[in-house]
Structures are given as C-alpha cells and as structure tokens.
C-alpha cells in the first residue's frame, strides 16, 4: 500500500502514519512525503521497525553501556561472594526473582554517586517502578554489597523521591530492606535535614492508608532503618536472616551491659511472637515473595478502591459440619479456624500474626470470591479471652481493613476481656479501648456472628449491636450476657447458696439458677427482643454471609465531622 502525505511532514509523523496503517491493513505500507519519488518510510509489519538507515550506536553509547554494567555489578566482589553463605541473593538477582526479566519497568538514580572517590554504585540503594503480579508498584531495595546497605545523602534522596511519587501515583510500595542504617561517617547532609532521612517516616505516615506499603526484611536493619518495616502496613521477615532493632547488640551492650545476639534481640521469632512487629515469617527469599504475592490479592491499589474479587470457590470443609464443630459446653475449647474454613472459599484463609496475641485470629479470606477481613476469638487459646496483645493486634488489623475497603467479619466466642493484675500492668484497658475504637470507627461493612459465648465487653469489641454492624446474627449455640452463668450465680447468689447446708440441695439449686440464667442470655431471647437480627441454621451460615456482604457492598457511612479521634 502506498500513501502520499503533505509536504513538510516529519519523518516521525510519516512513521506514525505508516505504523497505524500497517496495523490496520496488515500489509506493507510505503509513505511518501510531498512529491518525493522514493518512500520516506516503509513499514512492512506491525511488529517491525522502519527500514534501517545504516547508522549504528557510537562509541559514546558503548561507553555508557560499560558504565551501566559497572554500576549494576554492585559493590566489591568479596562482599558479593559472602551473600550465599547468608542465604541471600545479590540485590539485582533479588529484583529478577520478584519481577522477572520483563517486570522491571525502569530504575531511577542509577548514577547516584557515580563520581564518588569510593566505590558506591547507585549509592547502595535501588529505586524504580515494576510490575508485580500484574500490578504496577514502586520499589526500593538496598544493595548490601555497598557499605552494608547503609543510607547516605544520594540514597536518601532516591528513597524520598520514590515515596513522594507513590503519593501522587497511588500505586503500592514494596520496600526490600537490607540496611545497616545511616552511614555514620557521611551523615552530614542527610540526617536531620528538612529533606533528610527523617522525612522517610513523615512520608510513611502520609502514605499510610493511601496505598499499601509492604516491607520484606533480608538482613539486620538497625536504628533508623528499622522504622521502615514498622511503619509499613505489612512486614515479612525471613527466618534466621532478618532482624530489626533500635540498636545493634554491640550498642546494647555498651549502653545496658546486656550481652545478647542479633536474633534474640530482634530476630524474626522474637518479633513474630513477642513484639507483634512481624506479620509473617518466611522460610527463605522465595517463600517471602510467595507470601507477598498471596497478600496483594486481598488489597486494592489504593484507598477508595475496592479490593479485587476472584472466582468463587466452595469451602475446603463442608458448612454442614459447622454446628458439630461448636461444643455444647461454653467452656470447652475448639479451634475457630475449623469453623472459618467451612465458611470461606477454599485455600483463601490467610492469617497474619498467628503467633502474637493468639487468643484472637486476624486473617484475610474470601467469601464467594470477595475479600474479607476476619477477626475471630480463638477458644483454643485461653478460652478466647481477650488479652492486651490480642486486642492491639485486632485494632491494627481492623484499622488496615477499613483503610483499604475490606469488609469485616467478626466471629465472636469470648468470655470477654481478661482480668487480673498482670493484664492491668500490660495495659488491657488502653489496648482494649483501641480495639473498640477501631471497630467503632470502621466504615466498611461489618457483620458480627455470635458463635457461642459473647460475655461482658467482649460483645462490644467484636462489633456487637451497639457498634453499627450491618448485621448481628447468631448461631443457636450463642449466648449474650454481662458474664457467664457460673460467675453470675457466684456474684448474685453466693450468700444464699452458702446458707444451704445440704450439699445435694445446694448443688441442685445451683443447677436451677444456672439454667434460669442461661435462658435469660440465650440468643433466642435476644432475637425475640430484637437485640440481634437473626438466628441462622449453622449449615446456612456461608450463604447467609454471601447474601449480606453482597447486599451491603456499596455501603456509605459517615463519621462525625472532626479533625481526628484521639484514642489511637
């Protein structure tokens, strides 16, 4: 096909026309400009470029390629050789693992510190954009072969630019951390400056609730570097490799005299079980990527977007067995995950912080393909009583679900908040109020299911009727009361019972009082008095939740007009 265009058209314009026509007609296109006898551009296939004009890259480009190759090789070879001993990948191999050969879109600041006297390729920090699991993300990754991944002026500048662009683009951020902290011998110009390393945490705060921030730790992150993981929405540590602490073991010994190694001080096990700073612990680098690839399937790209739905799957275990899972005695233990897996889609239950505050389960899952956040009491752990760590874990999880438009499902089976001198010292009131505050402030759809016992303030924390759930439903095993029968009878009738001298008569009276009280707190009475919305047959619970979450999917809730609450 031959096409003639007007005099004065540029070669770029001719190429654009040739390309568009070739795609349309599926054959060779020759474009002539003005009265020219020879075609200016010939395009024979949509996948081909215009005819070559015989020009090739110059030495100038060849030199640039050599410079890029030197930068991408990282720090001194001796440091690269030590990485396999630690089970670590070189940072650029790590990016290949995460994004594949074609997933890295571009890198910013590659030539940072190019003219430095010391060998500082990219100033030890890589930033850019990539495609991860079909989604555009910003990323940063420390190069441990360059000054142990430490941060200095140019790397800080790259980090800040990446964060600020994430605020504008609304794309998620991946922090692939392997940093020993600020470069102490080069701290001038980046530590306390207005646009210095302290600005990281300001930007983390501004990004919080705007886009998901996910951090994976690949080494010991000390001091300032340790704040990025705790500011992130989700933190993944690698067993035996990751650590984070406010100071190194050597500094700790200098300041306190305590002799402790890095893993005991701030390793993955410690943060997963005791501090709650690690959401997940990976076995190795490949497993860390797998965990994040699962995690992002529950999250939207940014605030005010709905999380992605998947193809519905039947539960892994039959809903027909729900009622049999729940013991008749309110004090008998059972595993709440057994019930959850009879409600949610198969292979979708994704628990976070399983070893921290285990009396409450916090997990993402899908119900009929829809992502939901599950907050569930765990009767298999200390009867499901709410301890301080569990309350804090739940509050943070609820807050994140609300930020990213993930509906909440509460599965309530708790005797309430734990009592005693130790939990008071551990701030049960302070941390309990945070859970209640997060539940109160959440504007996503909330459904509360009274599975068995809902005693005391436990029903408040688990989004009971007073906390604006879209539905409060119960299974026939449910009970709602200020306290359980044994405690109530002891509180009200202790003196009268003690006055009965005959043991058998006293035991009989106790049984009668217990049954009377149990009738008073049974969910049938609660449903009769419209305290709850419905009692549902356990085998229909999944379908009940599917219908209710579907119906309330486009819910709009407004909070009071104020700057912000003061409780968190």
Number of domains: 4
CATH homologous superfamily identity of the largest domain: 2-enoyl-CoA Hydratase, Chain A, domain 1
- The low-confidence runs, each spanning 5 or more residues with pLDDT under 50, are none
- Which sheet architecture does the biggest sheet show? 8 strands, mixed
Distance between the termini: 69 Å
What is the CATH C level class of the largest domain, in words? Alpha Beta
Summed up, the helix count is 21
User: Over the alpha carbons, how many angstroms does the gyration radius reach?
Assistant: 30 Å
Roughly what percent helix?
Answer: 25-40%
CATH topology of the largest domain: 2-enoyl-CoA Hydratase, Chain A, domain 1
CATH architecture of the largest domain: Alpha-Beta Complex
Q: Based on Cα principal axes, name the global outline.
A: globular
Mean pLDDT: 91
Number of DSSP E strands: 20
Query: Which structural category do the helix and sheet elements fall into?
Result: alpha/beta
**Into which percentage range does the β-strand content fall?**
15-25%
Keywords:
568 residues; alpha/beta; seven-stranded mixed β-sheet; eight-stranded mixed β-sheet; 2-enoyl-CoA Hydratase, Chain A, domain 1; globular
How is this structure best described in words?
With 568 residues, the chain is α/β, with parallel strands linked by helices. The protein has 4 domains: 2-43, no CATH class; 81-298, 2-enoyl-CoA Hydratase, Chain A, domain 1 (Alpha-Beta Complex), CATH 3.90.226.10; 319-478 and 522-550, Alpha-Beta Complex (2-enoyl-CoA Hydratase, Chain A, domain 1), CATH 3.90.226.10; 484-521. The protein contains 21 helices and 20 strands. The strands form 4 sheets. Strands 13, 14, 15, 16, 17, 18, 19 and 20 form an 8-stranded mixed sheet that branches. The protein has a 7-stranded mixed sheet with strand order 4-5-6-7-8-10-12, with helices on both faces. A 3-stranded mixed sheet has the order 1-2-3, covered by helices on one side. α5 packs parallel to α6 and α18 packs antiparallel against α19 (503-521). The chain is globular. The model has no long low-confidence stretch (mean pLDDT 91).
